[in-house]
Amino acid sequence: MADTITLEVARYRPEQEDEPTTQCYEIPMRREWTVLDGLNHVKDRLDGTLSFRWSCRMGICGSCGMTIDGDPVLACETFLTDHHPGPVRVEPLRNFPVIRDLVVELTDFMAKLPHVMPWLVADEPPPDTEYLQKPAEVDEYQQYSMCINCMLCYAACPVYGLERDFLGPALIALAQRYNLDSRDHGDHDRLEILSAPEGIWDCTFVGECSRACPKGVDPAGAIQRYKLEAAKRTVRSLLLPRGRR
C-alpha cells in the first residue's frame, strides 16, 4: 500500500471566487484513518483555510456529512483504505446551498422542523411521576428515534433536490417517531400537515434516503407507512358516520 493518498477537496470561498474549485492535498495513507482524519490533517498541517464541520468523530453527532466519491456519507465513518488507491473526491452534501468549502446551509431544514410537531402532545395533564411504557411500546418508535440529523437522506433524495417545498425524509420519519409513541396524542394534527402536497405524497419512493441513512432509520419505510395510514383514514372518513372514526 502506498505511503500517501490524495484528497480532491471541493473549495468555495465566496469572498474570492464565484464558483467552486478543486484543490488536491497529499496526505499520509494510514489504515486507521478516516476521511475526517485526513481532512483534519489538512487543516492542521497543510491548509488552515479549509472549512468543514465535525464534532464527535464517533458517528453520533451527524456533523461531518459530506459527499465522498459521489456518495453522501459521514466522513468519520468512511475509511481511507476503502477508497485506496484514490484519489478521494470530497464535496459538500448535495441539495443544500454551500456556505464555504464543505459547509452547507441547513436553514431550510430548521425552518420546517416545527411543522411536524416534534414533541409529545398530551390530551390530559401529565402524571405525578414519569410516563411509563412497556418495552413493546418503546420498540414501536425506537427505530425512528435514532435519527442524528446528519442530512444524508436529504442529500440522497432526488425529490428534495427538485421540490424545495418537500418536507423531506428525516422530518417525516421524525413525525412517525412521535405518532407511534404511546404517550402522544398529536397524530391527527400531524397527519393533516403531512398529508399536504409537500408532505408524504411528494415522495416517489426511490428509497435512496434509507440506503444513505447511517443509523438504519429507514425514512422511506416511515413515509410508506404514513401513506397507508393516510389512505385508511380517508376511506374511514368516507364510509363511517361522523363521530365513529
Automatic annotation (TrEMBL):
PANTHER family given in the database record: SUCCINATE DEHYDROGENASE [UBIQUINONE] IRON-SULFUR SUBUNIT, MITOCHONDRIAL, SUCCINATE DEHYDROGENASE IRON-SULFUR PROTEIN
4Fe-4S ferredoxin-type domain boundaries: 134-167
Family: Belongs to the succinate dehydrogenase/fumarate reductase iron-sulfur protein family.
Pathway stated in the Swiss-Prot or TrEMBL entry: Carbohydrate metabolism; tricarboxylic acid cycle
Free-text remark on how the cofactor is bound: Binds 1 [2Fe-2S] cluster.
Cofactor section: [2Fe-2S] cluster; [3Fe-4S] cluster; [4Fe-4S] cluster
Protein name: Fumarate reductase iron-sulfur subunit
GO MF term list: 2 iron, 2 sulfur cluster binding; 3 iron, 4 sulfur cluster binding; 4 iron, 4 sulfur cluster binding; electron transfer activity; metal ion binding; succinate dehydrogenase (quinone) activity
Alphabetized NCBIfam families for the sequence: dhsB, PRK05950.1
Signal peptide positions on this chain: none
EC number: 1.3.5.1
Biological processes, Gene Ontology terms: respiratory electron transport chain; tricarboxylic acid cycle
Keywords, comma-separated and alphabetical: 2Fe-2S, 3Fe-4S, 4Fe-4S, Iron, Iron-sulfur, Metal-binding, Oxidoreductase, Tricarboxylic acid cycle
A matching Pfam family: Fer2_3
Reactions mediated catalytically: a menaquinone + succinate = a menaquinol + fumarate
Domain (2Fe-2S ferredoxin-type) ranges: 3-96
Cited InterPro entries: 2Fe-2S_ferredoxin-like_sf, 2Fe-2S_ferredoxin-type, 2Fe2S_fd_BS, 4Fe4S_Fe-S-bd, 4Fe4S_Fe_S_CS, Beta-grasp_dom_sf, Helical_ferredxn, SDH/FRD_Iron-Sulfur
